[in-house]
Amino acid sequence: MSAASFLGISGAIALYGYDGFLYSIGFLVAWLVALLLVAELLRNSGRYTMADQLAYRMRQRPVRQAAALSTVMASIFYLLAQMVGAGSLVALLLGVDSEALKNLTIVAVGLLMIIYVVFGGMKGTTWVQIVKAVLLMTGTVLITILVLAQFSFNLSDLLGSAAGESAAGDAFLDPGRRYGTDLTAKIDFLSLGIALVLGTAGLPHILIRFYTVPTSQDARTSVLWAITLIGLFYLMTLVLGFGAAALADTGPESAVATSAGNLASPLLAEAVGGGAGTTGGAILLALISAVAFATILAVVAGLTLTSASSVAHDLYATAWKKGQASERDEVRVARIAAFVIGGIAIALAIPAQSLNIAFLVALAFAVAASANLPSLLYNLFWKRFNTRGATWAIYGGLVMCVGLVFFSPVVSGSETAMFTGSDWSLFPLSNPGIISIPFGFFMGWLGTVTSSEPESEERYPELEVRALTGAGAEVAVKH
Question: 69 by DSSP, 3-state: which?
Fold first, then answer.
């Protein structure tokens, strides 16, 4: 329930109709995969970060270095989306139109969030996420009710009005406006779907949450609650998106269109409150923007904390200091890492303002599914899997995914690219998942069959029993 869902999906639906709702379906199904594959098994077999699960039966240093790099890269892609969303929101509220002021807004918002994370820690992050979830559900329910009230709670009238206001007419409700124009677009849609469905199970800021609950049963219960709430939320994004198409201006020169759909929900709130210039419209616009901003803050906190913790715990304390670092040193390194990672995300968010943030998050899902998921699944279910297989899977999937994104129309060669004045695009798809995810699994297999590691095989029965039964699992520490 991030800004990508609240702002990005509703915007994608407002602009592309049926095809935009595919993001909601993919994100929701991804949680079912996470429940079945990783929730209980990871809670039993890990300790604090994703690398702990791999390092249990493999060589510590190479595995932790690879896992930390993958965690940072996935987090940066996800942070990128949140920064773009924050910049769009603040620019809307302040009436900022100039490019320089928008860039300054992203820098200021990013620094504010990084400072919060550095001093808030895990407990502060958890409370912000709890408050965010309550605010987001409340705000979404409110706007959904107000939108449906405009059409006498008749969903058919809402869809018909959205189609009528769209330049596409009835075709607005049919598949294919975004991912059905040609064969490349259809393959791109398949690639997106694979990345969305498999991505959640490999996202580092999701995985680290499994280790913050006392038992594996609590992890499973948490995921079930998440699926229920997220399922309801995604159903409401349908109303938000088509409501924005029906009630807000989504024309080629509109604020919704120029923001790649990222401002659809706030402008819809203004419309159902009475429209621009009215007291009700101003109140609802401010309320929904505040909810979205709190959502961004919570997600940024979780992402930055996860990536900084991985750098401090996996790279610094374990790989470099070989377990000899003090807790104070780990905290210091984590804070420095938070500033560096946040700074990189801010720098990349400035040229990425033309991209829809739900789409940006889909790239983070592709990175997670390409680099993290193959090694996690192989480690849980393949006895022969070893250190070379794990590192090759992570590095191979990561390099392939990031490389294809760099040479895709996302970065250059299209009107909505990050760098519109250049063209070095060689890869035609916007999401690389259909190639990078199988490549990650292939590299994990290749690395394993080309090496032998008896120690890893000997420890596999311990990991298997631990993952399936919870015997010997790490005990939660209460501070």
Answer: helix
Structural domain range at position 20: 3-469
| Total domains present in the chain | 1
Under 8 Å CB-to-CB from 3, ≥6 apart: which residues?
A: 81, 82, 85, 86, 292, 295, 296, 299, 357
**What's the CA gap between 477 and 63, in Å, rounded?**
25
Instruction: Lowest mean pLDDT of 120-129, 146-155, 182-191, 338-347, name the range.
Output: 120-129
Determine, yes or no, domain membership for 258.
yes
Residue appearing with tokens 């992203």 = 106
Rounded Cα distance, 12 and 22, in Å: 9
CATH number at residue 434: 1.20.1730.10
10-56 confidence digits (pLDDT tens) = 999 999 988 888 888 888 888 888 777 767 787 777 666 777 888 88
Domain assignment present for residue 72? The answer is: yes
Question: Does residue 477 fall inside a structural domain?
Answer: no
> Residue for token digits 């919870």?
470
Place of tokens 């609590």: 218
- Please name which of 454, 387, 295, 334 lies closest in space to residue 48, comparing C-alpha atoms: 334
Alpha-carbon dihedral sign for residues 42, 44, 46, 49: positive
Question: Strand, helix or coil at 251?
Answer: coil
Other CB atoms within a 10 A radius of the CB of residue 217 amount to 13
- Read off the tokens for 103: 């860039």
Contact 356, 260 (CB under 8 A): yes
| Non-local CB neighbours of 421 within 8 Å, separated by 6+ positions | none
pTM of the predicted model as reported, rounded to 2 decimal places:
0.85
Residue 185: which residues within 8 A CB-CB, separation 6 or more? 178, 179
The whole-angstrom separation of Cα 318 and Cα 438 is 30
Residue bearing the bigger pLDDT, 89 or 62 = 62
Angle at 351 (CA atoms; ends 402, 295), nearest 5 degrees? 85
What is the distance between the alpha carbons of residues 211 and 477, in angstroms, rounded to a whole number? 10
| 8-state DSSP, 453 | -
> Up-side HSE of residue 96: CA atoms within 13 Å toward CB?
19
Q: If 0-12 CB within 10 Å is exposed, 13-18 middle and 19+ buried, where does residue 304 land? A: buried
Tell the residue number behind the tokens 């929701």, with chain if given.
Answer: 28
In a domain, 36, yes or no: yes
pLDDT score of 46: 67
**Euclidean distance between CA atoms 354 and 194, whole angstroms:** 24
Give burial (CB, 10 Å; 0-12/13-18/19+) of 70.
buried
Q: At what angle do helices 264-272 and 60-94 cross, to 10 degrees?
A: 40
Residues paired with residue 412 on neighbouring β-strands, in sequence order: 419
H-type alpha helices, 202-278: 204-210, 216-247, 255-258, 264-272
